[in-house]
Amino acid sequence: MQPEIWNDIIKYSLSKGIIDEYSYNIWFKDLNVDIKNDKIVVKFPSKIMKDKFETSFFPQIKEALKEFNGNSPEFEFAIGRTSSKKNISNQKSDSNKNANDKSLESKAYTKNTTTKKTTKYKKTSKLEHTFFKYNQIDNLNPRYTFENFVIGKNNEFCAAAAQRVAKYPGQNFNPLFIYGGYGLGKTHILQAIAKYIVTHYPEKNVVYMPVDQFINEFIYALQNKQMEFFRLKYRNADVLLLDDIQFLEKKDASMEEFFHTFNILHQSQKQMVFTCDKPPKDLKDFEDRVRNRMEWGLTVSITQPDFETRMAILRKKAELENREVNPDIISFIAKNVKSSIRELESALIKIFAYCDIFSIDTTKISLEQAKEILKDQLKYFNETRIVQVEDIIRRVAEVFKVSTIDIKSKKRNRSISLARNVAMYISRELTPTSTTEIGLSFGGKDHTTIIHASNKIAKLMKDDKILKATIESIIKDLQS
Ligand code: ADP
Ligand code: MG
């Protein structure tokens, strides 16, 4: 096993044409590379090989690293296959054997210790830290692909832009800025782009990172004087995908570093994609120059999915889990859980988990049972997210300039009737409440009255564009 940083350097040299694949197979593949005192120690099987490396490849590698970053890590070249034997004699490892982990760890940084025990701790050497893994794609969720991403009105523009960026990285919108609320698919689509590029353009260096991790790495690099490795990773990306960019707010030093990374990558037309929980203009604590750059490319949003999309997502999820579920349960969940896809999924997963625990076939579970299983979760949704009938009545009353008492009354005055019917229609659309219960909120009306009223409004909306727009705007207000 060669240390990660060495692999990175070799990869970088291959990408710059300093080493070709043939030389790589002959000279580099099986080299014994180690890290000691934050020096990269390369051991060659013979003097000839060592000399060849030092004269033919090393000067260029060093130059390239310098050019890239203004600095190069320190190297040491030696001869010999194994790293242990030679050093064991001149180290004080025995005294370390019983030392606690912490002191061993620090000694691994500073001393030339290579006993078994210290070998274990060698892994923590600063240079070898996996933070600086070059091609950062191991952290991708295998399920977050384009194939598994259901497209609806809420995300179709975003999905189209993401696919284009994935197919033609660096050629279209740079950066692509994706924003939207919690659990609506930002991370999923970002990782889908990463996966697509890694699969279709294996030569590209793709770096996907949650921004909090980017910040951690940055702080780590700063504290340990390893900025060159940090930069080696980020500034050499062909595709940089940063998730939850809002976390850079108020992180001045990280933001500064991000700013320079952005400029370098943008200048060389390297694709960047960012996700965020708000549009660029609302990133109040971003420096102007950074916020400004976020808008250089294309900004797209992901909003809450409509009922049809929620149904499709649940079906997809069941399909991915290889399960069949009673369609009434799917539509019950889709109707009740509206705010986040994560919560939509978690309701379905809860049903599956219940079935597993009690060895029930998912096709056999009834809607009533499902309601019981989800009772607590839906109560939470009702309390925190789902619009209440009372809110709807209040809002409609305001917009139609009537009183809530009038809406609940039996008055048949035209404007009051219209407001009442609209409120009934919206209540049926937005709440999971049954028509019987909605009827009760409207001063004890029959459930057929609710059905009749909402059908009437649905029909009117087809021809009356103003009424349609008014209702849509009330719905939007209520949901925000
Ligand atoms: P965000 O990053 O916006 O908070 P995530 O990307 O983590 O949201 O999505 C939450 C969950 O919902 C994930 O399991 C994801 O796979 C799923 N999801 C989101 N959008 C879709 C979609 N359009 N199709 C299928 N699954 C989706
Ligand atoms: Mg996310």
Write the layout of secondary structure elements.
Layout: H1 4-15, H2 21-28, E1 32-36, E2 39-44, H3 47-69, E3 75-79, H4 85-88, H5 101-110, H6 116-122, H7 156-167, E4 176-180, H8 186-200, E5 206-210, H9 211-223, H10 227-234, E6 239-243, H11 252-267, E7 271-276, H12 288-294, E8 298-302, H13 307-320, H14 327-336, H15 341-357, H16 367-373, H17 375-384, H18 389-400, H19 404-408, H20 414-430, H21 435-441, H22 447-463, H23 465-479
Parallel strand pairs: 2-3, 4-7, 4-8, 5-6, 6-7
Antiparallel strand pairs: 1-2
Bound molecules: adenosine-5'-diphosphate and magnesium ion.
Key phrases:
single chain, 480 residues, alpha/beta, 5-stranded parallel beta sheet, 3-stranded mixed beta sheet, 23 helices, 8 strands, binds adenosine-5'-diphosphate, binds magnesium ion
